[in-house]
Design brief:
One of its GO terms (molecular function) is RNA-directed DNA polymerase activity. Pfam families: rve, RVT_2, SH3_retrovirus. Keywords: DNA integration, DNA recombination, DNA-directed DNA polymerase, Endonuclease, Hydrolase, Magnesium, Metal-binding, Multifunctional enzyme, Nuclease, Nucleotidyltransferase, RNA-directed DNA polymerase, Transferase. By secondary structure, the protein is α+β, with helices and mostly antiparallel strands. It has two domains: 250 residues, Ribonuclease H-like superfamily/Ribonuclease H (Nucleotidyltransferase, domain 5, 2-Layer Sandwich); 153 residues, no CATH class. The protein is 24% helix and 19% strand. Strands 3-2-1-4-5 form a five-stranded mixed sheet, with helices on both faces. Strands 9-8-7-6-10 form a five-stranded antiparallel sheet. Strands 13-17-16 form a three-stranded antiparallel sheet. A hairpin with a 5-residue loop joins strand 7 and strand 8. Helix 5 crosses helix 6.
Length: 487
């Protein structure tokens, strides 16, 4: 899209890759955001600026920093990042940012929006804002989505940092250089809030060039490329002397990476799109084209800086941003899943659960009966931090093919109201009673059926020599009467 809309110069035409970058997939796990009304835009730069502090990091940067503070201009979406050692340095950084931004734009900073972090709330910071006539708006506690511009940008930055470090197997100490590089790149990428321009052009009025951008962590003679300098040169890290140098005339080998164990360069083991060799996957199609919804979908406010498209609408011009922000890829069919050991293990676990519960037994399909198809559904389970905890495969019956009066009768299954659960919890708490919570694994597999239902054997697990249909004597996920049978 950057290329097709001529938003930057120096960007070559990119062919659409056939695979997703594994480093991006592993580094960008996150929780889904929630909806919020879109707030109105400002009229000029520095009218509203968002700020947030990210850290502490696991290790110190090469300069001994543990945090970084970001500033996002609401009008231009321009982003600035500053590395700091302690949170009490935020005021000094803010003064530096304010002076630079006002001189560069000929506008005065009017409103600063932050969370209620102590680094923004102590006396000196408040006094400085009052003296400069800056309105300091503090986001209410537990509502980080209202500071979405800074919150979302920090998450995007950290996603990119993890990808850059993982892609070239760089030490974590280089996270600071990766943060500054991510900021530099993001200011030259498209955003939803701007109409056909990048944040850099919206702020400065000049269309940026990206012809000089190289793969972060690549070999540059005896140094490692770790960023860009405002003079047009490159920031290079010397792994031997552990220092940063600035150079303009640099020959970068993007296919090499530094061997941090032996202090020498080696061939990159990063997954490159044009190096992947895989068997073509058959596309599963139905008899009819599925119906597409015409309902207008409102995008959450925290995703204002993201371009969200459907998978089948990615253009051949290479909207690679779509791929770069993908989380763990979930297979869409058995043919894709069978190529990955993690999903094979998940499918074996599901089959073992079914057989352990005596959910089915092989039997000949009786005359006049019709077997219902099944399909595999794959889901990546994550914890509250967005880290992958489990690869789960579930075998589902295509319940939409069932016919009432033949394959099922009653489907109603009573459930407990939340009001009832809250009442019981309150009574237990009032009386000091102990409460126990449990989860039944593969619950629906334990429900007996009143009807005879036949399903085909699952893909990849057909019993050789017994290709007859699978007769079920307990409920399976996907059946219309499964909830009632379990209840």
């Amino acid at each position: 899209m950057l290329h097709s809309k001529e938003m930057v110069s120096g960007l070559p035409k990119i062919q659409m890759p056939s695979e997703v970058c594994e480093d991006c997939v592993q580094a960008k796990q996150h929780r889904d955001s929630f909806s919020k009304e879109v707030q109105s835009r400002t009229n000029h730069v520095l009218e509203v600026v968002y700020s947030d502090v990210c850290g502490p990091m696991q290790v110190d940067s090469t300069c001994g920093n543990r945090y970084f503070v970001s500033f996002v201009d609401d009008h231009s979406r321009k982003l600035w990042t500053y590395l700091i050692k302690k949170k009490n340095e935020v005021l000094d950084v803010f003064k530096k940012f304010k002076s630079m931004a006002e001189k560069q734009s000929d506008h005065k900073l009017k409103v600063l929006k932050t969370d209620g972090g102590g680094e923004y709330m102590y006396g000196e910071f408040t006094k400085f804002c009052e003296a400069e006539g800056i309105i300091h708006e503090v986001i209410p506690p537990y509502t980080p989505q209202q500071n979405g511009s800074a919150e979302r940008r920090n998450r995007t930055i950290m996603n990119m940092v993890r990808c850059m470090l993982k892609g070239k197997h760089l030490p974590k100490e280089l996270w600071g250089e990766a943060v500054n590089t991510a900021c530099y790149v993001l200011n030259r990428c498209l955003t939803k809030r701007l109409n056909g321009v990048t944040p850099e052009e919206s702020w400065s009025g000049h269309k940026p060039s990206v012809s000089h951008l190289k793969v972060f962590g690549s070999i540059a003679h005896r140094h490692v490329l770790v960023g860009y300098h405002s003079t047009g040169g490159y920031r290079l890290y010397d792994p031997i002397n552990k220092s940063i140098v600035i150079s303009r005339d640099v020959v970068v080998d993007e296919m090499k990476e530094w061997d941090w164990n032996n202090n020498k360069r080696k061939d990159s083991v990063s997954i490159m799109f044009d190096e992947i060799q895989s068997e073509p996957v058959e596309r599963v199609t139905g008899d009819t084209e599925p119906r597409r919804s015409t309902r207008t979908i409102t995008q959450p406010a925290r995703l204002n800086d993201c371009i969200i498209t459907r998978d089948n609408e990615i253009t051949e011009e290479g909207d690679l941003v779509h791929l770069a922000f993908n989380v763990e890829v979930e297979p869409v069919n058995f043919e894709e899943a069978v190529k990955d050991k993690k999903w094979l293990s998940a499918m074996n676990e599901e089959i073992e659960s079914i057989e352990r519960n005596s959910t089915w037994e092989l039997a000949e399909l009786q005359q006049g009966k019709k077997a219902i198809g099944v399909k595999w559904v794959y889901k990546v389970k994550v914890n509250p931090k967005g880290e992958v905890t489990r690869h789960k495969a579930r075998l589902l019956v295509k319940g939409f093919l069932q016919k009432q009066g033949i394959d099922f009768n009653e489907v109603f299954a009573p459930v407990a109201w939340m009001e009832t659960i809250r009442l019981v919890t309150a009574i237990a708490h009032y009386n000091g009673w102990s409460m126990h919570q449990m989860d039944v694994k593969c619950a629906f597999l334990n429900g007996p059926l009143d009807e005879e239902v036949y399903v085909v054997q699952p893909p990849g697990f057909t019993v050789k020599g017994s290709e007859s249909m699978v007769y079920r004597n307990k409920a399976l996920y996907g059946l219309k009467q499964a909830p009632r049978a379990w209840n």
